Amino acid sequence: MNATLLHAPPGSRIDGWQVTKALGDGGFAFVFLGEKNGRHRAIKVAQHRESSGDPKQTHARTLRELTALLMLDHPNIVRPQGYGLAESGNLYLALDYVDGWTLAEWAERKHPTVREVLGVFEKLAGALSYMHGRGILHRDLKLSNVLIRKSDGEPVIIDFSCASYTLAEDLTGGGLPPGTDRYRAPEQFQFLREHKDEHRARYAFQVADEIFAVGVMLHELLTDPRPTEFRPRFDLNSLSLPPPSPRLANARVPAALSDLVENLLARDPRRRPVDTEALRRELADLRAERSAEYDVPAHPPAEQRHGGLTPAAQAMPSTPQSLKRHVAMMERPRRRGMWLAGIVCIFVLVMAAVLWRSSRSVPGGPAESRDVAAPRSPPSIPHSAPPKTAPPAMTPAGPSSVTVPGPAIAAAPKEGSAVKTPAPEASHPGRAPRLPKTSDAAVKCASLSLVAALAAGCPGAQIRPEAFTCPAGAEEAMREQLHWEVAEQFSLQLDDRQAEFEFAWFTAGAEVVGVVPKGVNDDRQLAVAPRGTHFYGKAYYLSDKMGRVDGPALVIRYDRVKLPGQEEYPICVVAEGTAEAFKDGRVKASNRGAGFVVDRWP
Asked: Which of 14, 46, 176, 471 could form a disulfide with 62 if both were Cys (CB 3.0 to 4.6 A apart)?
């Protein structure tokens, strides 16, 4: 395969088609807008990428896609317009060029009403029913594989790279057919679990799987005001945790439509509509409802403006009162902690002022001293967890900190903390204060990075950030399902959305998606976390040294993981990198690092 086709510049030619611009790429092909004799077509060139999983089958997949498309002729399905070989020998398809938006882009740009959303999905279900009647399964339905044509608003199903048809040759080596994990029905993961030791076991993709994918698409459009944004989302196909009702997440969703989506996403396939024609009829019945609630935008346009939502509103747009009360209960401890932190800060500042004034009358006090070993500054005190958009505050380490001349003020201990703060020792006038004794173990811990110290079991007083709690079930999942051990290390690209081997800017408090990159060759790591494993978490900026010798740090706490072809698991993995800069709430650090399995934080 000719790798130059990956970046075919405008003006280059593919078998006489002049490339105008790139349209997209996937695991099996790259798509360009081509022009020949005044005709514009989407030129889809077969080309393997490592993520596709089967380099020897790339051309075979393209031929199978062509065969499937030649059997179809429907206004809501992309049409083939020819095929051929590029100069490099790569097979290509010429397809209808659909000038339009993806479903997610359409929802954000046009602010459709619930009735308009139903109209689009009724047509999609009709196209799927036509397709299934000819024995063809798409197998990769998702928001980005449906375009809404700008000229007439018609939906068009595209990208049949993963499609199959009756009696088609099996091209997949794994247990599951190709597709996008988020849109897979839960029974596919159940099949993997039950047949994990059977190397020749192959899942038989069904119409029920397509219906589930339609349910995921509909759920996302109804509950997420900005579905184009790349960020971790609720796993709709988890075997252990059913998805939330659309109406619970968005009060604008009519109850009957919410019930239908719940049935489409049912863990038992028998609860879903019997086929896509039955689904089309149900959607048509709902679209015909005369209730005014079907004629309002699925999301208020203001919610779809970039940056127009708080984190809580982003997670649960148009939240009804029952869910708002739940969010308020989750927020209450944080607010109480902030209130207590304010009281403690005022108390310490008052005490500092009193001691400073009294010290002016003491010989050798701060007002007369000129040989102070370190500049005087207000003492650091631990405080409650900050809002979700801010990084957690840190306090200097206990045993490794050094007492400096001047009035000794004890930092107020955090309420409920197991770390006891000793009473300040009175200093004799003119006598230098004693330095705390430091054990060999404390010296060793101080020399370690933050995450390495955690994994090595260094005492919490040595490195004492605001405590995080590992997600429920993380310890059991890491031990039983993932077979991970505490202190196990993974090589990671810390955020998959940024360049791997470069320094990148991380927004403190923002979500990140780490990934095991291609260059990893460690056999043990690949056995428990293969390439393509995704880690979901949040970035923090540590402004204090915390017993470290490397200065401020970027720390990422990953609390969820998804291995290729498996369900999502809760985890406790922490990665650390030296912060090169901090500006406007963003941290600059290397995007390549190590993640450590921990059982506590800190």
From this structure: 46
